[in-house]
Amino acid sequence: MSSPRHTFERRLACCCFAPLMALAFVHPTAIAQSKSPAKPAVSQPAVTPEEKTPKSTPALTNEQLQADPEAALKVLLEGNRRFAAGETIHPRQDIARIRETAKGQKPFAIIIGCSDSRVPNEIVFDQGLGDLFIVRTAGQVSTYASWGSIEFAEEVLGAKLIFVLGHTKCGAVQAAVRVPEVPGHIVTLINDIKPAAQRVKGQPGDEVENAVRENVRMQVEKLKNLEPVLAKRFREGKIKIVGGVYDIDTGLITLVE
Fold first, then answer.
1. Whole-angstrom distance, CA of residue 67 vs CA of residue 239
2. For the packed helices 207-224 and 171-178, what is the interaxial angle rounded to 10 degrees?
3. N or C: which terminus of the chain has fewer CB atoms within 10 Å of its end residue's CB?
């Protein structure tokens, strides 16, 4: 006569292992038929580079933009709007572009910008390798070395758009407005900006920001009249020289008239 313990163990074995034993004798075909048919994989269309590019401006090569400074300016401003909106596309920054530009460069714009670390030009314009020829000094002050660099980019490399880019809260302009004396070679920068500060003195609004915009205006005019190369090209209508101010708080660039 079986003990209660043995009776319990037999019942437990029947409950737990009987279904598994039955499953072992089921034909594989029956198991396969019991499964629901898998849904066919749906392929997703590849996103082409053209689809990532804003529809407002057709994709143009750098050579085409060199021949059309107005289109080049539009590309720059559209790139800045993407940057300020947090919608950058980081174009032409892959290994293929590295290999392409290793053979030569065709920048479509020359940027005369401030050295401020908060205004990296390729980033704020959302451009890539080989797109921009950049000359940067504090307060975007231009001297002989800068002028020679600009002329090289225009005459040799073929860029026909020159963009002078200032920015709000510029330390160099602030020093020109408020600091009577500065040490060392900094004085060469400040002395170049002081005429702009003097010109807007007493005008309504923030004196530093007024001087920032006036500094850009005066630098644009200086380049338009810079003999012998740029002044000649400007009179011939072969180059476009404009200025703008980058807003440190918003990331947006506005043109200075």
1. 9
2. 110
3. N
Q: What is the pLDDT of residues 243-257, one digit of tens each?
A: 999 999 999 999 998
Q: Residue 113, class by beta-carbon neighbours within 10 Å (0-12 exposed, 13-18 middle, 19+ buried)?
A: buried
> 134 pairs with which residues across the strands?
111
Q: Where are the beta strands (DSSP E) in 121-182?
A: 132-137, 161-167
Of the candidates 107, 62, 56, 98, which has an alpha carbon nearest to the alpha carbon of residue 79?
A: 56
Query: Which three-class secondary structure state does DSSP give residue 211?
Result: helix
Contacts of 83 (CB under 8 A, 6+ apart): 123, 124, 125, 126, 251
Residues of the chain with CATH 3.40.1050.10: 58-255
pLDDT tens for each residue of 25-42: 344 443 334 444 444 433
Q: Give the residue carrying structure tokens 């190369």.
A: 229
| Sequence-separated (6 or more) residues with CB below 8 Å from residue 186 | 138, 175
21 - beta bridge partners?
A: none
Residue 177: band (very low, low, confident or very high) from pLDDT cuts 50, 70, 90:
very high
Q: How far apart are CA 36 and CA 206, in angstroms?
A: 72
Lookup: tokens for 51: 């689809």
Nearest partner of 158 among 221, 110, 99, judged by Cα: 110
In 3D space, the residue among 94, 106, 115, 155 whose CA is nearest the CA of residue 133 turns out to be 106
Q: Give the Cα separation of 215 and 160 in Å (integer).
A: 22
